[in-house]
């Protein structure tokens, strides 16, 4: 299908000439970009779905997309109140309908009044609707026990991804050995590596400790930082908490140590906290970087630069498709903050329905509201199920010889380590594949289960993992986990 | 060590051997070495500053939301605080946002969107059947039958098919392949001339000759007012020029939900169709798009309704047609009104507004005003627009923000305010201009 050099000249002879935009002429940074979560294995999963639809016989009747953190695609229901308010905003005629509760109507009217022309169809200002940014500030204050948040330091975005890319873009500067380096965890959510590749920044890996539930160790940060200073100018440190793909929830002590380290070493902190509502394990608690930073007092609270990110895609709401999110910046240079706003203005504004949804995420029904009871019930149910699925996943995988799974303390994924027989590793290498990619491909072809190989997230050399979501409905998840375990056993036998 | 620390303060570790330049045997030694030469930051010296930030970002300018718009925002705040001005409101004639200026959304579109957002409404008698049908079709194509799931990075499949069908109809049967359609998060901006077919052919030929990738921003394809003008899509013309062109010229054409008669800017809906792209490039494109996961699904749904509106025979067709004609008729009227009024003002010349949503009149700025502008370190038309804003509350964007021939000056104003308000605005601009000419004569 792809036109190679020989094809190009044949094409030329056929009157088709060489293209202007080719692999060789395109942006080389884009070529380096990889995003495993929607990478080759997922493309193959799509093909298999197509084949199934066409009636091709397979050892399975459906493809299970356990590759992506998309709760609603796996059957999770949206929160009723959120969709009611949004529908009222979309079609304000419904404000006259008896089928909607009063509190939903009030919310919708409030949001619409803050929109240009009282419509979701108008652009908003580039940082997002003022009213909503104020609501986000209040949410942050409540979450952080009263520590003030300034709406002017809050920027709504197209998912958290939009804001993360914007902040990274600001940080990238310098040439050659002075080029910006950014510390990112291994394993990491590949948005970071992809964005650094696109921006031609230097990726500096720091390894989370699998033996200690994926703990973040400052000594490791120091090691990597000092090595990195040889060939780049490290300017930023990214932390994902709760972790993706690892699911660990960092302790308060750890967060303090990270902040202290960042301050000492002159690093801008990016705190990806999109799973702040997804904490399951007993004894685990979410501590926001902002809160810890502030409570540490000066000079950290007054000088440490921080950007923290949240999203409407995860939590108990799972509204991925709406692309709602925000970033709060702390101690950012006011001139740079203006530049950031300028950069955001080129894309005009984040999608307004997503902004509206985010507003409800940060200011849900209060106990005195008519919709509270149903809201609370729906929310508890989703979170309780996720907690149960997290536990089940850990349990089933740890009962399987050759698979070891750290506790899934939070987020939406398991990232178990799998032992692969040396013959399989060898065969994979002969095929030019990462061994865990080979494993995952075979898993997909034989069971229809689509997970993402650990090589897509980064892992210690010689170890193999895969990331699987905990999102399928409970009974289906149980079956999947069992199927996967059986497949692993079969695979191990086959290549022994 | 002090010198190293000083160098580090300037921004980065030097290449000359520092304590961390040697390969140490133990991590502890490395760690303590780093500690020794920790960057000493004086209080208030930040990591991310104007000097240390990405220079390419600094170079970015986007006039449509630039300094004049920020100034307009400040003035609005002052008005809110009760500060007296020669006007009672700021008129935001800087941005092509129809609904912000009072244009009503198309009822059918919002009905379908509401049904998709809150599917319980599918049981409500207050929604027409044709809207429900559309909503069901969209929902069935979404993961978990919900707008809340990510879609494929290229966009929901059936919506891309609908877009392809729309393009094929629009272009009189020239086939469009859904595989070449990518749904996007909105599109970009343009100016108000409608190019003749001959012009488009010439451009295509030029691109073919000079091996240029063509980008055709066609977001205003539904906004054509001049009776002598027609929208010719680049794709259609390309195909009609024969295989030498249609098989070779690489083209990307763009459309959006933000303009037309819909004005759904906030939804950030859009698509692009790519022609003759190298298959490997298409793979790279999807890969790049996948990092941002997908365009907002509600925007994709809005795009679907734009390309798949009610047809004759359907329940909603009459109301839909009425609303669409009303919006477009209104815009055409305002386009003519604007052109005529500006051309009556000495020192303003406005080209015919054949399409889109803007006037880009050329203004004569007297030499003394140009000097005054330079004294204020502003482009002359920025100076003019600032004065206009401060004296009348009308916010337009100086031509220097869009690019113009050296020595000429323009501003861009939208034609979107309601007719009566637009008349007032145009009159005010006229009065201001005459006064300005007198002042700087």
UniProtKB/TrEMBL annotation, chain A:
Main location: cytoplasm
EC number: 2.6.1.2
Example GO BP: L-alanine catabolic process
UniProtKB keywords: Acetylation, Aminotransferase, Cytoplasm, Phosphoprotein, Pyridoxal phosphate, Transferase
Subunit structure: Homodimer.
Task of the protein: Catalyzes the reversible transamination between alanine and 2-oxoglutarate to form pyruvate and glutamate. Participates in cellular nitrogen metabolism and also in liver gluconeogenesis starting with precursors transported from skeletal muscles.
Protein name per its UniProtKB record: Alanine aminotransferase 1
Organism, as annotated: Ictidomys tridecemlineatus (Thirteen-lined ground squirrel)
Phylogenetic placement of the source organism: Eukaryota, Metazoa, Chordata, Craniata, Vertebrata
From TrEMBL, chain B:
A GO term, aspect molecular function: L-alanine:2-oxoglutarate aminotransferase activity
Keyword tRNA processing among UniProt keywords: no
Keywords noted in UniProt: Aminotransferase, Pyridoxal phosphate, Transferase
EC number in record: 2.6.1.2
EC category name: transferase
Catalytic activity: L-alanine + 2-oxoglutarate = pyruvate + L-glutamate
Any Pfam family the entry gives: Aminotran_1_2
Pathway stated in the Swiss-Prot or TrEMBL entry: Amino-acid degradation; L-alanine degradation via transaminase pathway; pyruvate from L-alanine: step 1/1
Role summary: Catalyzes the reversible transamination between alanine and 2-oxoglutarate to form pyruvate and glutamate.
Biological processes per GO annotation: 2-oxoglutarate metabolic process; L-alanine catabolic process
Disordered: region residues: 1-26
One GO CC annotation: cytoplasm
Protein name (database record): alanine transaminase
Entry-linked SUPFAM superfamilies: PLP-dependent transferases
Organism phylogeny: Eukaryota, Metazoa, Chordata, Craniata, Vertebrata
InterPro entries found in the cross-reference section: ALAT1/2-like, Aminotransferase_I/II_large, PyrdxlP-dep_Trfase, PyrdxlP-dep_Trfase_major, PyrdxlP-dep_Trfase_small
Top-level taxonomic group: Eukaryota
Subunit structure, as described in the record: Homodimer.
């Amino acid at each position: 299908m792809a036109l190679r050099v020989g094809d190009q000249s044949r094409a030329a002879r056929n009157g088709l000439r060489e293209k202007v935009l080719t692999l060789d002429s395109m942006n080389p940074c884009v070529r380096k970009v990889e995003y495993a979560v929607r990478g080759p294995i997922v493309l193959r999963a799509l093909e298999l779905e197509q084949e199934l639809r066409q009636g091709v016989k397979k050892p399975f009747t459906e493809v299970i997309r356990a590759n992506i953190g998309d709760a609603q695609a796996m059957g999770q229901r949206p929160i009723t109140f959120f969709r009611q308010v949004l529908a009222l905003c979309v079609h304000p005629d419904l404000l006259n309908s008896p089928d909607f509760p009063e509190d939903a109507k009030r919310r919708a009217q409030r949001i619409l009044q803050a929109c240009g022309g009282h419509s979701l169809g108008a652009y908003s200002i580039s940082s997002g609707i003022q009213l909503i940014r104020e609501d986000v500030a209040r949410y942050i204050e409540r979450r952080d026990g009263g520590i003030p948040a300034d709406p002017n330091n809050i920027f709504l975005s197209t998912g958290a991804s939009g804001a993360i890319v914007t902040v990274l873009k600001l940080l990238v500067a310098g040439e050659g050995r002075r080029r910006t380096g950014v510390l990112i965890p291994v394993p990491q959510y590949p948005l970071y590596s992809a964005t650094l590749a696109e921006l031609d920044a230097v990726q500096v890996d720091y390894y989370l400790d699998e033996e200690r539930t994926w703990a973040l160790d400052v000594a490791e940060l120091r090691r990597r930082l000092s090595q990195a200073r040889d060939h780049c100018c490290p300017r930023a440190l990214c932390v994902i908490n709760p972790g993706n793909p690892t699911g660990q929830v960092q302790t308060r002590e750890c967060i303090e140590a990270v902040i202290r380290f960042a301050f000492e070493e002159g690093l801008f902190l990016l705190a990806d906290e999109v799973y702040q509502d997804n904490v399951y394990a007993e004894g685990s608690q979410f501590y926001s970087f902002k809160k810890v930073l502030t409570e540490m007092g000066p000079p950290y609270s007054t000088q440490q630069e921080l950007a923290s990110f949240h999203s409407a895609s995860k939590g108990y709401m799972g509204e991925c498709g709406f692309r709602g999110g925000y970033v709060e910046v702390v101690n950012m240079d006011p001139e740079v903050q203006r530049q950031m706003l300028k950069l955001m203005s080129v894309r005009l504004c984040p999608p307004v329905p997503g902004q509206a949804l985010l507003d409800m995420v940060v200011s849900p029904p209060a106990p005195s509201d008519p919709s509270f009871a149903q809201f609370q019930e729906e929310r508890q149910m989703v979170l309780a199920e996720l907690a149960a699925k997290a536990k089940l996943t850990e349990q089933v995988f740890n009962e399987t010889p050759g698979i070891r799974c750290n506790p899934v303390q939070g987020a939406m994924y398991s990232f178990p380590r799998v032992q692969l027989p040396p013959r399989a590793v060898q065969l994979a290498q002969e095929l030019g594949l990462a061994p865990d990619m080979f494993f995952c491909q075979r898993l997909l072809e034989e069971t229809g289960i689509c997970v993402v190989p650990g090589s897509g997230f980064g892992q210690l050399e010689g170890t193999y993992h895969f990331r699987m979501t905990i999102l399928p409905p409970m009974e289906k998840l149980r079956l999947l986990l069992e199927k996967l375990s059986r497949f692993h056993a079969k695979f191990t036998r086959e290549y022994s | 060590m002090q010198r190293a620390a000083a160098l580090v303060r300037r921004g980065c570790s030097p290449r000359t051997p520092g304590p961390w330049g040697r390969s140490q045997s133990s991590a502890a030694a490395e760690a303590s070495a780093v500690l020794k030469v920790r960057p000493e930051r004086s209080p208030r010296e930040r990591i991310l500053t104007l000097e240390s930030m990405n220079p390419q970002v600094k170079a970015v300018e986007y006039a449509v939301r630039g300094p004049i718009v920020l100034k307009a925002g400040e003035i609005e705040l002052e008005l809110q605080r009760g500060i007296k001005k020669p006007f009672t409101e700021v008129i935001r004639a800087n941005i092509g946002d129809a609904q912000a200026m009072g244009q009503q959304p198309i009822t059918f579109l919002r009905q379908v969107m509401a049904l998709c957002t809150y599917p319980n409404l599918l049981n409500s008698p207050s929604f027409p059947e044709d809207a429900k049908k559309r909503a069901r079709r969209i929902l069935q194509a979404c993961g978990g039958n919900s707008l809340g799931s990510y879609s494929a990075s290229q966009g929901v499949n059936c919506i891309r098919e609908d877009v392809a069908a729309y393009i094929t109809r629009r272009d009189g049967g020239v086939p469009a392949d859904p595989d070449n359609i990518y749904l996007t998060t909105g599109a970009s901006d343009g100016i108000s001339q409608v190019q003749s077919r001959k012009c488009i052919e010439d451009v295509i030929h030029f691109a073919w000759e000079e091996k240029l990738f063509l980008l055709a921003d066609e977001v205003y394809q539904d906004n054509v007012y001049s009776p002598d003008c027609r929208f010719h899509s680049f794709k259609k013309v390309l195909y009609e020029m024969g295989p030498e062109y249609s098989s070779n010229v690489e083209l990307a054409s763009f459309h959006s939900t933000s303009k037309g008669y819909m004005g759904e800017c906030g939804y950030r809906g859009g698509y692009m169709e790519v022609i003759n792209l190298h298959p490997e490039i298409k793979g790279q494109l999807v890969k790049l798009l996948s990092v941002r996961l997908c365009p907002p699904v509600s925007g994709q749904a809005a795009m679907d309704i734009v390309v798949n509106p009610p047809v004759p025979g359907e329940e909603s067709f009459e109301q839909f047609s009425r609303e669409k004609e009303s919006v477009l008729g209104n815009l055409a009227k305002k386009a003519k009104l604007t052109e005529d009024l500006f051309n009556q003002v000495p020192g303003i010349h406005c080209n015919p507004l054949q399409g889109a949503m803007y006037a880009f009149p050329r203004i004569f700025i007297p030499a003394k005003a140009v000097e005054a502008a330079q004294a204020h370190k502003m482009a002359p038309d920025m100076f003019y627009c600032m004065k206009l804003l401060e004296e009348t509350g009308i916010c337009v964007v100086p031509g220097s923000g869009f690019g113009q021939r050296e020595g000429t000056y323009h501003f861009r104003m939208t034609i979107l305010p309601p007719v009566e308000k637009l008349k007032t605005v145009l009159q005010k601009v006229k009065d201001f201009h005459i006064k300005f000419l007198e002042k700087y004569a």
